[in-house]
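2024-03-11 09:14:02 DEBUG pipeline.ingest accepted 1 chain
2024-03-11 09:14:02 DEBUG pipeline.ingest length=291
2024-03-11 09:14:03 DEBUG pipeline.predict start
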Amino acid sequence: MKTPIMTRTISILIFWILIFLMWGCSANNPANDQDLKKDKLEEYKSQMTDLKKKIEDLENELGDDMPVNIVNVEVSELRPSLFEQFIEAIGNVSTDQNVMVSPETAGTIESIRIKEGDKVTKGQILARLSTESIEQSIAEAEVNLQLASTMYERRKNLWEQNVGSEVEFLQAESNMNALKKRLQGLRAQLEMAVIKAPLNGIVDQLMQNQGEMAGPAIPFARVVNLEQVYITANVSEKYLTKIKAGDSISIYFPVLDLLKKDVIFRTSSIIDPDSRTFSLRINLTNEDLRL
């Protein structure tokens, strides 16, 4: 005969056995597990749809006040391109038309017709020297030439009439020609007493004043033409085989905040033995005279 305690114990054991059997069946049944996952997925999708709808409704209510983070993106097709390598060097601007003007003869400066900063053209008179002594010599030579020409004409007429000697005729001719040459020389000296501009440009500096003694060895003024300039720079010899005439170059003038692009005109054929560098030259047009 079973007692009530034993009966209750057996019932409990049977209950737990059934629980383990059900758990085992559920764990070993992949179909049930997949169904549960699908149900969870549908539940999450439904929640996401509801959240999107709520977000959209709130954005419509807020309107333009809602900050939107937008990043502009530009797409370009990849293409092969030229790779350029640059080196930096410091250069100097110069001009070939930078001339020290001096008179061709000695004399006192009688008048100056320009001042510093004036624009001048080639052949324009800059100053005149005192020419009083030359003018007197010219006047004297003209009188002597007139007399010599008269004597020559008379000797010539006599010689044609077979009167007089040939020597006298030739001496008269020679004397006349010598005086002509002397007169030409004096007039050339008179012309050299005028100081003229050798080129178009600007009078950058006046070095003498009126009344001072001028001469071929004494600079009178500096005339500069800046319409055509050039730049020279020194580059390390290790770039000797990499830099050549015709290569592109960018030139930056920091004082003017000016950038120019041009090409190398030429490179030097020698290496400086002290700095181990070679020079290069770039020709530039400077129509606005900023350089």
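2024-03-11 09:14:41 DEBUG pipeline.report Confidence is low (pLDDT under 50) at residues 1-5.
2024-03-11 09:14:41 DEBUG pipeline.predict end
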